[in-house]
Amino acid sequence: MVDMAIFRLNHAVLYVRDVAASVAFYRDVLGFGYTETGDAFPGAAFLRAPGSTNDHDLGLFQIGSQAAPSGAGRTSVGLYHLAWEVDTLGDLESLADALSQADALVGASDHGTTKSLYGKDPDGLEFEIVWIIPADLLTDEDRNKAGVSRLDLPAELAKYGRDARSGVGISRVG
C-alpha cells in the first residue's frame, strides 16, 4: 500500500474540434477565464474556473473538424463526465439558466445530498455541475434518499435558499 493519498482533481484536459468555439462556451456559459499560458501553445487553451487558485482547471487541445464524436460509454470505454462544484444553490440556478439559453442543458438530478445539472459542450462532451447540501442543513430525507430523481430546482431553492454555501466532505456525488 502506498503511503500517500490523492485528495482532489487538479485539472482536466479535453481534445476538441475547435478550440475557439470551446473557449467561448466554457467562458461565456460557465464563466471560466482564459489564462495567459494559453498563447504559448498553438491550438490549445487553458482556462481557470472562477475563484480557482490553479494555474488552469481546464486544458483544451484542438484536433480539428474531422474528429469523430466520442464513443465513450456507447462504443468504447472512456470518461463519462467531469463534475464541477458550485458554492451556492443560487449559482446552480444561474448556471441552469445559462446552460438552457445555450441549449446545452441535458439533465438535472437530485442525488439526495447533492443537486446536479448535466450539460454538453460544443463537441458533445458531458459535464456535471453539482451543489452539495451543507451538513448542517441535511435532513434525514436527504441522507436516506435512494437512487436518483428529477431535480426540482424551485423546490430546492425554497427549502435551502439561494445563498446556502455548498457542503464539504459529502461522498454521494453522481
UniProtKB/TrEMBL annotation:
<dbReference type="InterPro" id="IPR029068">
    <property type="entry name" value="Glyas_Bleomycin-R_OHBP_Dase"/>
</dbReference>
<dbReference type="InterPro" id="IPR004360">
    <property type="entry name" value="Glyas_Fos-R_dOase_dom"/>
</dbReference>
<dbReference type="InterPro" id="IPR037523">
    <property type="entry name" value="VOC_core"/>
</dbReference>
<feature type="domain" description="VOC">
    <location>
        <begin position="8"/>
        <end position="132"/>
    </location>
</feature>
<dbReference type="Pfam" id="PF00903">
    <property type="entry name" value="Glyoxalase"/>
</dbReference>
<protein>
    <submittedName>
        <fullName>Glyoxalase/bleomycin resistance protein/dioxygenase superfamily protein</fullName>
    </submittedName>
</protein>
<dbReference type="GO" id="GO:0051213">
    <property type="term" value="F:dioxygenase activity"/>
</dbReference>
<keyword id="KW-0560">Oxidoreductase</keyword>
<keyword id="KW-0223">Dioxygenase</keyword>
